[in-house]
Amino acid sequence: MENKDFIKRFNDNPEYIFSAPSRINLIGEHIDYNGGKVFPCAISLYTKALVSRRKDLNIRLYSENTKTEILADFNNLNYDKSLGWANYPLGIFYILKNKGYSLKYGLNIYYSSNIPLGSGLSSSASILDLTAYICNYIYNLELDNLEIALIAHESEVKYNGLLCGIMDEAIISLGKKNNALLLDTNSLKYEYVPIELKGASFVVLNTNVPRSLTESKYNERVAECNKALEIIKSKYNISNLCELKSSDLTKIMNLLNDDKLFRRVKHIVSENERVELFNRVIKNNDLSILGIILNESHKSLKDDYEVTGKYLDLITILARKYAYGARMTGAGFSGCAIALVSNDKIEEMEKYIKSEYKKQTSIDCDIYKIDIVDGPKGEIL
Ligand code: GLA
Question: Cα dihedral sign for 66, 72, 74, 80?
Fold first, then answer.
């Protein structure tokens, strides 16, 4: 994406440049809509945007990735499925307008992203946060980074209809170089945890299997958790599933009297405890134990929560031949996994996974060596 592309498309000069990262979650999967603690970090794959202000109240959006442009005006921002990706940025304008923020002029925005779309690295939260950040910057809305994340999250849930938790929007907005974010999704309190692995790295493994049915399956899991919570609340005084401990599980099993719902709760409770453990162990750089926790998390997501799928299972099995541990990251079903691997084994692991994965699936997978980076940035050109 270059200035000349913007000029050619909009017949105007770009005035600002912005970027927002993507994310991986190190541990704490599918518990951000159950009041648990999550442990994500922002990574060095980005959505970027060039922007100029318009004289009218229209929004012209172009995506270099899909090569599509849409023109909308502030007075007609209702969700329209046929607009596809554009519903993410449009939702931000819609939510801000409904909250009464003054959006003084329209914008031209030219987006470009190197985040593999639909791969579980949160390309959608990246464009949502980026757009909220752009509005905050240009219209001087005086939102802090957590408030930006909350606007983006509201847009994803209310406008785009995915009943997701706050994790993705929060980490992309609050990302900090070489740190993970330990976020309590119940209180929204957070702290940064330095990721200073000695001699090892987190590597991203992309199964390159496009997600299908992810949204309906995701919302199905949310509904199952809500159902289990309702039943448990009839007897115990809790407000979310992550208030339970492993030691509560036996009595919960009898109360639920439903194997599937019980396994969902078991995953939630055990995963929340794994986050606490992971946070303690990462401070000691105990890579073997971190690897075990990652593997346990994947197993729980596979057997109890049933969100992994054969491609994620395969790629994590292959990775474990070289890595300390590996697990799916994000919503799952397909998409990406992460592996914790000693730096001197990365090349060998990459070669092995690429050839074995291809042999067994006929699909080429991708492997990314990523950096842990800061949240959104913007500047005047
Ligand atoms: C998706 C959602 C997040 C979170 C993860 C699973 O990425 O957007 O809120 O629930 O799945 O941990």
Answer: negative
